[in-house]
Write a structure and sequence with these properties.
499 residues; 11 helices; alpha/beta; single chain; FAD/NAD(P)-binding domain; 17% strand; 24% helix; 6-stranded antiparallel β-sheet
Amino acid sequence: MLYDYDVVVIGSGAGGGTFAYACAQAGKRVLLLERGRNSTPKEPIHDEQAMLIDKRPYDDRPVRVNGSERLLYMGGVLGGGTSLYGAALMRPSIEDFHPGEQYGTRIPRSIWDWPITYKTLESYYTKAEALYGVSGCADEDYGPLQRPRNGYPQKPLPLKPINRRLINANRARGLRPFRLPLAIDFDRCLQCPSCPGYACINDSRRSSARLVARGIEEKLSLDVFAGVEVERFARDAAGRVAGVRVCDRATGRRTEYRAKRYALAAGALASPALLLRSGVEGQWIGRNYMMHLSPIIVGIYGKRTGGDETYIKQIGFADYYLGSRRYPHKMGIVQSLPVPGPLLLRKMTRGRIPFRVVEFLRKRMLPLTGIVEDLPNPANRVSLGADGRAELSHGFSRFDRERGRQLSRLMRRILRNAGALFCLAKSFPSNEHVAHQCGTLRIGTDPSHAAVDADCRLFGQPNVFVVDGSILPTSLGVGPALTIMANALRVADVVGREI
Protein backbone atom coordinates (compact mmCIF):
# COMPACT_ATOMS: atom_id res chain seq x y z
CA MET A 1 0.00 0.00 0.00
CA LEU A 2 1.17 3.51 -0.78
CA TYR A 3 1.11 5.91 2.17
CA ASP A 4 0.96 9.68 2.06
CA TYR A 5 2.57 9.96 5.50
CA ASP A 6 4.04 7.84 8.26
CA VAL A 7 1.70 9.42 10.81
CA VAL A 8 -1.49 11.49 10.56
CA VAL A 9 -2.39 13.38 13.75
CA ILE A 10 -5.92 14.72 14.28
CA GLY A 11 -5.93 17.70 16.64
CA SER A 12 -3.12 20.04 17.67
CA GLY A 13 -3.68 20.54 21.41
CA ALA A 14 -1.54 19.39 24.34
CA GLY A 15 -1.48 15.80 23.11
CA GLY A 16 -1.67 16.16 19.34
CA GLY A 17 0.80 19.01 18.93
CA THR A 18 3.33 17.42 21.28
CA PHE A 19 2.97 14.00 19.65
CA ALA A 20 3.31 15.44 16.13
CA TYR A 21 6.47 17.33 17.04
CA ALA A 22 8.03 14.28 18.73
CA CYS A 23 7.29 11.99 15.77
CA ALA A 24 8.69 14.53 13.29
CA GLN A 25 11.76 15.01 15.45
CA ALA A 26 12.26 11.23 15.30
CA GLY A 27 12.41 11.46 11.49
CA LYS A 28 8.85 10.46 10.64
CA ARG A 29 6.76 12.10 7.92
CA VAL A 30 3.90 13.71 9.84
CA LEU A 31 0.67 15.41 8.83
CA LEU A 32 -1.09 17.43 11.54
CA LEU A 33 -4.77 18.21 10.90
CA GLU A 34 -6.48 20.99 12.86
CA ARG A 35 -10.07 22.17 12.51
CA GLY A 36 -9.34 25.62 13.95
CA ARG A 37 -7.58 28.58 12.40
CA ASN A 38 -3.81 28.85 12.35
CA SER A 39 -3.77 32.42 13.65
CA THR A 40 -5.40 34.52 16.34
CA PRO A 41 -8.56 36.48 15.52
CA LYS A 42 -8.25 39.86 13.81
CA GLU A 43 -9.81 41.61 16.79
CA PRO A 44 -7.45 43.13 19.38
CA ILE A 45 -6.26 40.28 21.58
CA HIS A 46 -7.23 42.09 24.79
CA ASP A 47 -10.80 42.62 23.58
CA GLU A 48 -12.83 40.91 26.30
CA GLN A 49 -16.02 41.01 24.24
CA ALA A 50 -14.38 39.19 21.31
CA MET A 51 -12.36 36.73 23.39
CA LEU A 52 -14.62 35.64 26.24
CA ILE A 53 -18.14 36.80 25.44
CA ASP A 54 -18.32 36.21 21.67
CA LYS A 55 -15.82 33.32 22.04
CA ARG A 56 -14.00 34.10 18.78
CA PRO A 57 -10.97 31.88 19.48
CA TYR A 58 -13.12 29.01 20.76
CA ASP A 59 -14.74 26.08 18.98
CA ASP A 60 -17.65 27.31 16.87
CA ARG A 61 -19.61 24.04 16.90
CA PRO A 62 -22.74 24.14 19.06
CA VAL A 63 -22.90 21.09 21.33
CA ARG A 64 -26.13 19.78 22.81
CA VAL A 65 -25.36 19.52 26.54
CA ASN A 66 -28.04 17.79 28.60
CA GLY A 67 -30.55 18.68 25.89
CA SER A 68 -29.63 22.37 25.38
CA GLU A 69 -27.36 23.69 22.63
CA ARG A 70 -24.33 25.65 23.82
CA LEU A 71 -21.09 27.08 22.51
CA LEU A 72 -18.45 25.78 24.89
CA TYR A 73 -15.16 27.23 26.04
CA MET A 74 -13.06 24.75 24.05
CA GLY A 75 -10.01 25.90 22.09
CA GLY A 76 -10.85 26.53 18.43
CA VAL A 77 -7.47 27.62 17.02
CA LEU A 78 -4.17 25.90 16.25
CA GLY A 79 -2.82 24.65 19.55
CA GLY A 80 -6.29 23.86 20.88
CA GLY A 81 -6.69 24.55 24.57
CA THR A 82 -2.97 25.31 25.02
CA SER A 83 -3.38 28.49 22.98
CA LEU A 84 -5.81 29.78 25.61
CA TYR A 85 -4.97 27.91 28.82
CA GLY A 86 -3.63 29.16 32.14
CA ALA A 87 -0.33 27.34 31.49
CA ALA A 88 -0.10 25.73 34.95
CA LEU A 89 1.75 22.48 34.22
CA MET A 90 1.82 20.37 37.38
CA ARG A 91 2.89 16.81 37.96
CA PRO A 92 0.24 14.79 39.82
CA SER A 93 0.86 12.65 42.89
CA ILE A 94 1.96 9.02 42.77
CA GLU A 95 -1.39 8.20 44.40
CA ASP A 96 -3.21 9.57 41.32
CA PHE A 97 -2.10 6.48 39.40
CA HIS A 98 -3.66 4.21 42.07
CA PRO A 99 -7.12 5.75 42.60
CA GLY A 100 -8.45 2.62 44.28
CA GLU A 101 -6.48 3.58 47.40
CA GLN A 102 -8.57 6.75 47.75
CA TYR A 103 -11.94 5.75 46.35
CA GLY A 104 -12.31 2.00 46.86
CA THR A 105 -15.75 0.79 45.84
CA ARG A 106 -16.74 4.24 44.54
CA ILE A 107 -14.97 3.27 41.29
CA PRO A 108 -14.77 -0.07 39.41
CA ARG A 109 -12.07 -2.50 40.54
CA SER A 110 -10.70 -2.52 36.98
CA ILE A 111 -9.44 1.07 37.35
CA TRP A 112 -8.08 0.91 40.90
CA ASP A 113 -4.63 1.03 39.29
CA TRP A 114 -3.75 2.66 35.99
CA PRO A 115 -1.89 0.37 33.55
CA ILE A 116 0.93 2.95 33.62
CA THR A 117 2.53 4.45 36.72
CA TYR A 118 4.17 7.71 37.66
CA LYS A 119 7.54 6.01 37.16
CA THR A 120 6.51 5.12 33.60
CA LEU A 121 5.97 8.80 32.83
CA GLU A 122 8.62 10.44 35.01
CA SER A 123 11.26 10.95 32.31
CA TYR A 124 8.59 12.15 29.89
CA TYR A 125 7.38 14.74 32.42
CA THR A 126 10.93 16.08 32.48
CA LYS A 127 11.09 16.18 28.69
CA ALA A 128 7.70 17.92 28.43
CA GLU A 129 8.74 20.53 31.01
CA ALA A 130 11.82 21.25 28.91
CA LEU A 131 9.87 21.48 25.64
CA TYR A 132 7.38 23.91 27.18
CA GLY A 133 9.96 25.89 29.19
CA VAL A 134 8.22 25.49 32.54
CA SER A 135 9.20 27.97 35.26
CA GLY A 136 8.94 27.01 38.92
CA CYS A 137 10.62 26.39 42.29
CA ALA A 138 11.16 22.67 42.81
CA ASP A 139 12.63 23.26 46.29
CA GLU A 140 9.25 24.35 47.69
CA ASP A 141 6.90 21.94 49.48
CA TYR A 142 4.36 20.56 47.01
CA GLY A 143 2.83 18.14 49.50
CA PRO A 144 1.83 14.90 47.75
CA LEU A 145 2.49 16.35 44.27
CA GLN A 146 5.64 15.25 42.48
CA ARG A 147 8.41 17.63 41.44
CA PRO A 148 11.27 17.36 38.93
CA ARG A 149 14.38 15.85 40.51
CA ASN A 150 16.70 18.44 38.98
CA GLY A 151 14.48 21.51 39.14
CA TYR A 152 12.47 23.35 36.52
CA PRO A 153 14.01 24.66 33.29
CA GLN A 154 13.17 28.31 34.08
CA LYS A 155 12.96 30.54 37.15
CA PRO A 156 9.54 31.86 38.22
CA LEU A 157 8.28 35.42 38.16
CA PRO A 158 8.99 37.26 41.46
CA LEU A 159 5.96 37.23 43.73
CA LYS A 160 3.50 40.10 43.57
CA PRO A 161 2.87 41.79 46.95
CA ILE A 162 -0.62 40.31 47.39
CA ASN A 163 0.74 36.81 46.71
CA ARG A 164 3.65 37.30 49.12
CA ARG A 165 1.03 38.22 51.69
CA LEU A 166 -1.04 35.14 50.83
CA ILE A 167 2.00 32.88 51.24
CA ASN A 168 3.32 34.38 54.47
CA ALA A 169 -0.07 34.48 56.19
CA ASN A 170 -0.88 30.88 55.37
CA ARG A 171 2.57 29.50 56.13
CA ALA A 172 2.24 31.12 59.55
CA ARG A 173 -0.88 28.96 60.02
CA GLY A 174 0.82 25.73 59.02
CA LEU A 175 -0.15 25.53 55.34
CA ARG A 176 2.34 24.93 52.50
CA PRO A 177 1.64 27.28 49.58
CA PHE A 178 4.00 27.06 46.62
CA ARG A 179 4.59 28.89 43.38
CA LEU A 180 2.74 27.36 40.44
CA PRO A 181 4.91 25.82 37.72
CA LEU A 182 3.94 27.80 34.61
CA ALA A 183 4.73 27.34 30.92
CA ILE A 184 5.44 31.05 30.48
CA ASP A 185 8.62 32.76 29.34
CA PHE A 186 8.75 35.53 31.93
CA ASP A 187 11.68 37.20 30.17
CA ARG A 188 9.20 38.13 27.42
CA CYS A 189 5.88 38.04 29.29
CA LEU A 190 3.98 41.33 29.42
CA GLN A 191 2.29 40.19 32.67
CA CYS A 192 -1.17 40.93 31.33
CA PRO A 193 -3.87 40.75 34.02
CA SER A 194 -6.14 38.98 31.51
CA CYS A 195 -4.04 35.95 30.64
CA PRO A 196 -5.95 32.63 30.67
CA GLY A 197 -8.76 32.57 28.13
CA TYR A 198 -7.05 35.03 25.81
CA ALA A 199 -4.61 34.43 22.99
CA CYS A 200 -1.07 35.45 24.00
CA ILE A 201 0.03 38.60 22.23
CA ASN A 202 3.71 37.57 21.86
CA ASP A 203 3.79 33.78 22.37
CA SER A 204 5.43 34.07 25.78
CA ARG A 205 2.82 31.61 27.05
CA ARG A 206 4.12 28.33 25.64
CA SER A 207 1.58 26.40 23.56
CA SER A 208 1.63 23.32 21.38
CA ALA A 209 1.10 25.69 18.42
CA ARG A 210 4.44 27.27 19.28
CA LEU A 211 6.02 23.81 19.52
CA VAL A 212 4.66 22.91 16.08
CA ALA A 213 6.00 26.21 14.69
CA ARG A 214 9.38 25.28 16.15
CA GLY A 215 9.25 21.97 14.28
CA ILE A 216 8.62 23.82 11.02
CA GLU A 217 11.47 26.24 11.78
CA GLU A 218 13.73 23.22 12.36
CA LYS A 219 12.69 21.98 8.89
CA LEU A 220 11.29 18.72 10.23
CA SER A 221 9.03 16.66 7.97
CA LEU A 222 5.89 18.17 9.48
CA ASP A 223 2.97 19.39 7.38
CA VAL A 224 0.26 21.37 9.18
CA PHE A 225 -3.19 21.86 7.64
CA ALA A 226 -5.40 24.19 9.67
CA GLY A 227 -9.03 25.01 8.98
CA VAL A 228 -9.81 21.44 7.91
CA GLU A 229 -12.46 19.11 9.30
CA VAL A 230 -11.76 15.40 9.64
CA GLU A 231 -15.17 14.03 8.76
CA ARG A 232 -14.52 10.35 9.37
CA PHE A 233 -12.06 7.51 9.21
CA ALA A 234 -12.13 5.49 6.01
CA ARG A 235 -12.18 1.74 6.67
CA ASP A 236 -11.24 -1.30 4.62
CA ALA A 237 -13.31 -4.44 3.98
CA ALA A 238 -12.18 -5.89 7.32
CA GLY A 239 -13.29 -2.78 9.20
CA ARG A 240 -9.75 -1.55 9.85
CA VAL A 241 -8.98 2.16 9.60
CA ALA A 242 -7.37 2.81 6.21
CA GLY A 243 -7.44 6.60 5.85
CA VAL A 244 -8.92 9.90 7.00
CA ARG A 245 -11.44 11.90 4.98
CA VAL A 246 -10.86 15.61 5.33
CA CYS A 247 -12.90 18.64 4.25
CA ASP A 248 -11.36 22.08 3.80
CA ARG A 249 -13.72 24.38 5.71
CA ALA A 250 -13.07 27.35 3.43
CA THR A 251 -13.41 25.68 0.00
CA GLY A 252 -15.42 22.53 0.73
CA ARG A 253 -12.76 20.47 -1.07
CA ARG A 254 -12.50 16.89 0.21
CA THR A 255 -9.32 14.83 0.38
CA GLU A 256 -8.35 11.45 1.79
CA TYR A 257 -4.96 10.80 3.40
CA ARG A 258 -3.41 7.44 4.20
CA ALA A 259 -0.76 6.77 6.80
CA LYS A 260 0.97 3.89 8.54
CA ARG A 261 -0.36 5.14 11.90
CA TYR A 262 -3.09 7.53 13.01
CA ALA A 263 -3.16 9.52 16.26
CA LEU A 264 -6.47 10.84 17.53
CA ALA A 265 -6.12 14.00 19.64
CA ALA A 266 -9.29 16.02 19.03
CA GLY A 267 -10.28 16.14 22.72
CA ALA A 268 -12.50 14.12 25.03
CA LEU A 269 -15.63 15.28 23.23
CA ALA A 270 -14.58 15.30 19.55
CA SER A 271 -12.32 12.21 19.59
CA PRO A 272 -15.00 9.67 20.57
CA ALA A 273 -17.52 11.50 18.35
CA LEU A 274 -15.24 10.98 15.34
CA LEU A 275 -14.92 7.27 16.10
CA LEU A 276 -18.68 6.90 16.49
CA ARG A 277 -19.26 8.80 13.25
CA SER A 278 -16.83 6.42 11.54
CA GLY A 279 -18.69 3.33 12.76
CA VAL A 280 -15.85 2.21 15.03
CA GLU A 281 -17.44 0.18 17.79
CA GLY A 282 -16.52 -0.36 21.41
CA GLN A 283 -18.62 -0.37 24.57
CA TRP A 284 -16.42 2.27 26.26
CA ILE A 285 -16.16 4.72 23.38
CA GLY A 286 -17.62 7.98 24.64
CA ARG A 287 -18.33 6.76 28.17
CA ASN A 288 -17.06 8.19 31.49
CA TYR A 289 -16.76 11.82 30.41
CA MET A 290 -15.11 13.83 33.18
CA MET A 291 -14.36 17.52 33.71
CA HIS A 292 -13.10 18.94 36.96
CA LEU A 293 -15.58 20.44 39.35
CA SER A 294 -14.00 23.83 39.99
CA PRO A 295 -15.50 26.00 42.74
CA ILE A 296 -14.32 29.62 42.73
CA ILE A 297 -13.96 31.76 45.85
CA VAL A 298 -13.10 35.45 45.52
CA GLY A 299 -11.62 37.31 48.48
CA ILE A 300 -12.43 41.02 48.74
CA TYR A 301 -9.75 43.09 50.45
CA GLY A 302 -9.78 46.55 51.95
CA LYS A 303 -6.96 47.76 49.70
CA ARG A 304 -6.16 47.21 46.04
CA THR A 305 -4.62 43.84 45.21
CA GLY A 306 -3.21 44.81 41.79
CA GLY A 307 -5.03 41.92 40.15
CA ASP A 308 -6.84 44.22 37.74
CA GLU A 309 -3.52 45.65 36.51
CA THR A 310 -0.99 42.82 36.38
CA TYR A 311 -0.47 39.05 36.37
CA ILE A 312 -1.22 37.49 39.78
CA LYS A 313 -1.85 33.80 39.01
CA GLN A 314 1.17 32.48 40.94
CA ILE A 315 0.16 30.39 43.96
CA GLY A 316 -0.93 26.80 44.59
CA PHE A 317 -1.92 24.80 47.70
CA ALA A 318 -1.88 20.99 47.85
CA ASP A 319 -2.59 20.75 51.60
CA TYR A 320 -6.06 19.30 50.99
CA TYR A 321 -5.16 17.22 47.94
CA LEU A 322 -5.79 13.93 49.75
CA GLY A 323 -8.32 15.38 52.19
CA SER A 324 -8.25 17.31 55.45
CA ARG A 325 -8.16 16.24 59.08
CA ARG A 326 -11.92 16.67 59.42
CA TYR A 327 -12.82 15.53 55.90
CA PRO A 328 -10.60 12.60 54.85
CA HIS A 329 -11.66 12.44 51.21
CA LYS A 330 -9.46 13.35 48.28
CA MET A 331 -10.26 16.75 46.82
CA GLY A 332 -7.46 18.24 44.71
CA ILE A 333 -5.36 21.34 44.32
CA VAL A 334 -6.21 24.96 45.09
CA GLN A 335 -4.67 27.64 42.88
CA SER A 336 -4.93 31.36 42.30
CA LEU A 337 -6.76 32.85 39.32
CA PRO A 338 -6.56 36.16 37.49
CA VAL A 339 -9.19 38.76 38.30
CA PRO A 340 -12.11 38.38 35.83
CA GLY A 341 -12.69 41.20 33.34
CA PRO A 342 -15.69 43.47 33.87
CA LEU A 343 -17.79 41.89 31.12
CA LEU A 344 -17.17 38.33 32.30
CA LEU A 345 -17.83 39.35 35.89
CA ARG A 346 -21.11 40.95 34.85
CA LYS A 347 -21.98 37.76 32.98
CA MET A 348 -21.12 35.60 36.01
CA THR A 349 -23.36 37.75 38.23
CA ARG A 350 -26.08 37.96 35.56
CA GLY A 351 -25.83 41.74 35.52
CA ARG A 352 -27.13 42.07 39.06
CA ILE A 353 -24.20 44.22 40.23
CA PRO A 354 -23.92 47.78 38.84
CA PHE A 355 -20.89 48.39 36.63
CA ARG A 356 -19.34 50.92 39.04
CA VAL A 357 -19.54 48.41 41.86
CA VAL A 358 -17.99 45.74 39.63
CA GLU A 359 -15.03 48.03 38.90
CA PHE A 360 -14.63 48.91 42.59
CA LEU A 361 -14.60 45.21 43.57
CA ARG A 362 -12.25 44.16 40.75
CA LYS A 363 -9.52 46.39 42.15
CA ARG A 364 -9.75 44.60 45.50
CA MET A 365 -10.16 40.98 44.40
CA LEU A 366 -8.03 37.88 44.84
CA PRO A 367 -9.69 34.75 43.34
CA LEU A 368 -8.90 31.11 44.10
CA THR A 369 -10.23 28.01 42.37
CA GLY A 370 -10.32 24.41 43.44
CA ILE A 371 -9.73 21.47 41.12
CA VAL A 372 -11.86 18.66 42.50
CA GLU A 373 -11.24 15.26 40.94
CA ASP A 374 -14.65 14.21 39.66
CA LEU A 375 -15.20 10.46 39.44
CA PRO A 376 -15.95 8.48 36.26
CA ASN A 377 -19.54 7.55 35.56
CA PRO A 378 -20.57 5.60 32.41
CA ALA A 379 -23.78 7.66 32.22
CA ASN A 380 -21.67 10.79 31.64
CA ARG A 381 -21.04 10.28 27.96
CA VAL A 382 -20.56 11.61 24.46
CA SER A 383 -22.97 10.32 21.83
CA LEU A 384 -24.21 11.32 18.37
CA GLY A 385 -27.50 12.97 17.63
CA ALA A 386 -29.66 12.12 14.63
CA ASP A 387 -27.81 14.80 12.67
CA GLY A 388 -24.42 13.22 13.44
CA ARG A 389 -23.35 16.01 15.79
CA ALA A 390 -21.82 15.35 19.20
CA GLU A 391 -24.10 15.43 22.22
CA LEU A 392 -22.97 15.47 25.82
CA SER A 393 -24.74 14.10 28.88
CA HIS A 394 -23.07 15.06 32.13
CA GLY A 395 -23.79 15.62 35.79
CA PHE A 396 -21.65 15.73 38.93
CA SER A 397 -22.36 13.15 41.63
CA ARG A 398 -23.40 14.03 45.17
CA PHE A 399 -19.92 12.97 46.31
CA ASP A 400 -18.28 15.31 43.78
CA ARG A 401 -20.46 18.21 44.90
CA GLU A 402 -19.88 17.58 48.58
CA ARG A 403 -16.11 17.63 48.08
CA GLY A 404 -16.53 20.88 46.15
CA ARG A 405 -18.38 22.42 49.08
CA GLN A 406 -15.76 21.22 51.55
CA LEU A 407 -12.90 22.62 49.46
CA SER A 408 -14.78 25.93 49.06
CA ARG A 409 -14.94 26.26 52.84
CA LEU A 410 -11.18 25.71 53.08
CA MET A 411 -10.46 28.21 50.30
CA ARG A 412 -12.41 30.86 52.20
CA ARG A 413 -10.15 30.24 55.18
CA ILE A 414 -7.03 30.63 53.02
CA LEU A 415 -8.22 34.02 51.76
CA ARG A 416 -9.33 35.22 55.20
CA ASN A 417 -5.95 34.20 56.64
CA ALA A 418 -4.46 36.79 54.29
CA GLY A 419 -6.90 39.52 55.35
CA ALA A 420 -9.94 39.17 53.08
CA LEU A 421 -12.83 41.19 54.52
CA PHE A 422 -15.39 38.85 52.97
CA CYS A 423 -15.63 36.25 50.22
CA LEU A 424 -17.84 35.75 47.19
CA ALA A 425 -18.51 32.22 45.94
CA LYS A 426 -19.32 30.52 42.68
CA SER A 427 -19.78 26.95 43.80
CA PHE A 428 -19.71 25.11 40.50
CA PRO A 429 -18.65 25.82 36.89
CA SER A 430 -21.04 27.27 34.37
CA ASN A 431 -22.68 25.04 31.80
CA GLU A 432 -20.40 26.54 29.11
CA HIS A 433 -17.10 25.58 30.75
CA VAL A 434 -15.60 22.15 30.24
CA ALA A 435 -12.45 22.44 32.34
CA HIS A 436 -9.92 19.65 31.80
CA GLN A 437 -12.28 17.27 30.01
CA CYS A 438 -11.10 13.66 29.83
CA GLY A 439 -11.99 9.99 30.18
CA THR A 440 -14.04 9.06 27.12
CA LEU A 441 -11.50 6.63 25.60
CA ARG A 442 -9.85 5.41 28.73
CA ILE A 443 -6.68 3.37 28.97
CA GLY A 444 -6.71 -0.16 30.37
CA THR A 445 -5.49 -3.70 29.97
CA ASP A 446 -8.60 -5.21 28.42
CA PRO A 447 -11.48 -4.08 26.15
CA SER A 448 -13.93 -5.26 28.81
CA HIS A 449 -13.20 -2.10 30.78
CA ALA A 450 -11.24 0.25 28.48
CA ALA A 451 -11.11 1.67 24.95
CA VAL A 452 -7.31 1.74 24.46
CA ASP A 453 -4.50 -0.49 25.71
CA ALA A 454 -1.48 0.50 27.81
CA ASP A 455 0.25 1.92 24.71
CA CYS A 456 -2.91 3.96 23.96
CA ARG A 457 -3.67 1.83 20.90
CA LEU A 458 -7.39 1.57 20.18
CA PHE A 459 -8.61 -1.98 20.84
CA GLY A 460 -9.47 -3.61 17.51
CA GLN A 461 -7.62 -0.93 15.48
CA PRO A 462 -3.86 -1.67 15.64
CA ASN A 463 -2.88 1.41 13.64
CA VAL A 464 -4.90 3.96 15.65
CA PHE A 465 -3.61 5.62 18.83
CA VAL A 466 -5.24 8.15 21.17
CA VAL A 467 -3.00 10.83 22.68
CA ASP A 468 -5.36 13.40 24.25
CA GLY A 469 -7.07 13.56 27.65
CA SER A 470 -9.63 10.97 26.57
CA ILE A 471 -7.32 8.20 27.78
CA LEU A 472 -7.33 9.19 31.48
CA PRO A 473 -9.17 6.59 33.63
CA THR A 474 -9.55 9.17 36.42
CA SER A 475 -9.24 12.92 36.18
CA LEU A 476 -6.34 13.65 38.60
CA GLY A 477 -6.40 16.39 41.21
CA VAL A 478 -4.38 18.79 39.05
CA GLY A 479 -4.89 20.07 35.52
CA PRO A 480 -4.11 17.19 33.14
CA ALA A 481 -2.15 19.14 30.47
CA LEU A 482 1.35 18.10 31.56
CA THR A 483 0.31 14.46 31.94
CA ILE A 484 -1.25 14.56 28.46
CA MET A 485 1.97 16.03 27.04
CA ALA A 486 4.17 13.48 28.83
CA ASN A 487 1.99 10.57 27.70
CA ALA A 488 2.02 11.87 24.11
CA LEU A 489 5.82 11.77 24.18
CA ARG A 490 5.68 8.21 25.53
CA VAL A 491 3.30 7.06 22.79
CA ALA A 492 5.44 8.82 20.16
CA ASP A 493 8.29 6.54 21.24
CA VAL A 494 6.01 3.52 20.82
CA VAL A 495 4.96 4.60 17.32
CA GLY A 496 8.54 5.52 16.40
CA ARG A 497 9.73 1.98 17.16
CA GLU A 498 6.98 0.46 15.00
CA ILE A 499 7.47 2.37 11.74
